Structures are given as C-alpha cells and as structure tokens.
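During the reporting period, our protein records have gained a structure token line. A sample record is set out beneath this paragraph:
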Amino acid sequence: MSRYSVLLVDDDEDDYFLTTECLRDIREQEFDVTWASTYDEAFYLLNEKQFDIGLFDYLLGARTGLDLLRIAKDLRLHTPIILLTGRGDVTIDSEALDLGVADYLVKSELEPEKLERSIRYSIGRASALKALRESEGKYRGIFEGSMDAICLLNESGQFTDVNPAAIQLTGLIKSELIKKTLSSLFENDLARINFEQEISDKKDILDFEAELVAANGDTQTVIIACTCHKMPALPNEVFFQAILHNITRRKKAEKELLIAEKIASNGRFMRLLGHEIRNPLTNIDLAIGQVLEENKDDELYFFLEIIQRNSQRISKLVTDLLQASNTGQMHLSDIQPHELLEQTLEIASDGIALKKITLNQHLSPHAPIIQADPDKLKIALLNVIVNAVEMVEAEKGTIEVSTKIVGDSFVFIIKDNGPGIAHEQIKKIFEPYFSRKPNGMGLGLASTLSIVQAHGGQVDVQSQRGNGATFFVYLPTKN
C-alpha cells in the first residue's frame, strides 16, 4: 500500500474534514495529512518540510492559493500541488497552470475517485519531471564540464548554445557567439565552404580539421565532430551538435618534432658534406699558397687570388653551416641571463650602429640564474636580433629588447617595427631553409629553435604583416 505525506492548506475547518474524509476513502493508499489553516502557517511548513503532495485552497483570507504557488515556485519546490476552489474560473485555472499547478479541482465536485486520480496523475507527473530534471542536470553537467568545446547549431550552422569551453576557445561571450555561424570563425576559406556544404546537406561531419581565429587574433587548430539530429516533432527540421577538440598544442609539438628531426638529419648531412668538401679545399689552399709564392706573373697572380678568395669563402660557408646544424654537445653552466644578453647585443652592435637603429631595453629587475650553454645560447639570441636588424628600415628602425619572468620560465623578448610576418609565413618561420630574405639560407631561426629546445625551452613569435614582429624565447629557471 502506498503512503504519501500531504500538506492540506484550507482556512475552513469543515472543508478540511470533508477533504480528509475523501482521502480516507481512497483505496490502497494512505495519507499522512498536515493541516495548515492560515497562509503564514503554510508558508512556514513549505520552508521547513518536504511533502509528497499539496492540496491548496484558493481562498485563504487576504491571500490565495496562487500566492502560495508563487512562493513554492520561488523556493524551487518540486512538490506537486492541486488547487482547490469553491467555483470554476477559467482565469484562475489558466494562471494556476502558468505557475506550475499539477491539477485544478472544484470542491463541490470533489469525490474519492476523482481526487485519487488527480493525486496519482500529479505524483506520477512530478516523478517524471524529477527524472527529466535529473537527466537534464546530468547531461548539462557533462555539457558544462567538458574540456572540449561543445556547441549546438541550427540548420544553418549558427550557434544556439555553447558550453564554457567553447567560450574559452573562441574568446567570445555567449551573446556574441549566438550571432555567428561556426564556419565564420574559420581562417581558411576553402574549409569554410566545405563545412557549410556539409551543413547544407544535413550530413554528419567527422574529423573535420579547421583553424579557428579567436577574438584576440590567435589561431587554434581544432578537430570537429558534428552530428545532425532531427526534431522528433518536426522531422523536416534539424539541429547539429558539434564537438571541437583543440589540437593546437599537439600540432605544434608535432611540427617542432618534425623540425628537430630535419635539423638533426641536416646536421648529419652537413658534417659528412663538410668533411668531403674540406679535404679538397685544404689541398687547393695549399697549392694556391705555394703557387702564389713562386709566381711572378701579375695577370696570373690576379686570377690565383680570385681562386684563393673563393676557396676561403667556401670554407667559411661550410663552417657556418656546420655551426648552424650542430646544436648538440651542450656544456651547461650557471649563467646570469642579463650578462649573456649584454654580450650578445655587443656582438650585434656594429650592425645596429651602421643602420642607425634605435635600441631600447626594458630588463626585469630580478633575473634568476639559468642553466645554459653560453656560447650556443648567444648564437640563438643573436640569430633573432640579427634577423630583426636586417628586417627594420635604416634610420627608422626600432628594436626593443626586454626580459620578464613567467611562471618557471625566464623570457627574452625581441620586438621590432619591421614589415612583420605574414600569417602563412609564421607557420614556416622556424623550418630549415625557409627564409624571407633573398640571400638567406633559412638556418638562423631553425638553429635558434633547436638550441632553445635543447635547453628545455620554447620559442614563440607574434606578428602581423605591417606591424613588426615579436619573438619570445622561454628558458627554464634553475630550481
């Protein structure tokens, strides 16, 4: 036999007895009735106790059962409530339903069978709503707590709902996102067209890789899984659930690993090539030196000097290539980073002075000791500084060198007011043999990245065409 707790709110004692008698006549169910004869008593009980069902009289002196319904709604109580009244009124009925009343009964028509059916329906409906709320809460928790960005899109691919991870990924607040389509955030036009076509065809989209441009201009690489769902009530209408998995770090790590492998492979090739080239060059230099000492013919002497000069240039080129490709064999020691920076700037001072470049320094007042190979780290920083010197305009160029501490890293920052780097070039800037300069070999920045990574650090660049470039060299501080 089922047993339910009932809150009966009625200011008429006769009606209270009639209602309780009606409850007693209901078969196979027992009711523990708590009577509240005033609005204030009912208000107190709603705050203090939990009931399975509520029976509220509409008229409660100066207050009404609708007022109690509002209180229950404000308190977010999920107790099903049946409103009792002495007369039928469509307006009252409509207002009660808007406030969430479970049912509406006229007292003069009250009888056990009708009351039992109303209670059974109300409790059953409340249980179903509770299960629905719990299910919704569970899936809302998954939605809100997901580390991946989860979005709901309408049939046009426009945002209708997003979770916090999507807001963090895009840098846009929810009200801004729901005015946009997902594809409008794509950087690549072809990707945008392909995605919009799939949405238009109402297809599921799996493993779609795209680059999103966030509100701050940063580009994030994501893998999108987009599922098309049909509306049960409206089979011709659909919505999409899109999950965006951010793989920016993974792609960056894969690219850095590829660059490191290229540099290592190039290093092995350069050492082999250098050895094979230097042997005949040594013989050429010795032979030319001997001939120059013995030769008395001025015209022949002129051509022999050209041969010697170019032989020496080839030898220097081989040496430069070997130095750029040899980032191994680290000899670490404790160094003061500002002293190392000062030595590096001294090496670059001639180029800075010749182009009449303005050099500004903003150094952190507290520089921790770092472990580094001073010779190799100087090469890494010098490559960035020389690159900035070559890119800025003579007499108008400005280079700003600064340092700061970020978490467990000490950061060198080199900023210039040069022509900047196009977005498509930023992706290749650290690749071996890629150069923006007509006569560049494209090994300087690749060497910088390799050296810094060998120190356990990282290199990053921020730039836009026409707005200069800023390089960040992160190095771990000594624990």
Summary: The chain has a mean pLDDT of 82.
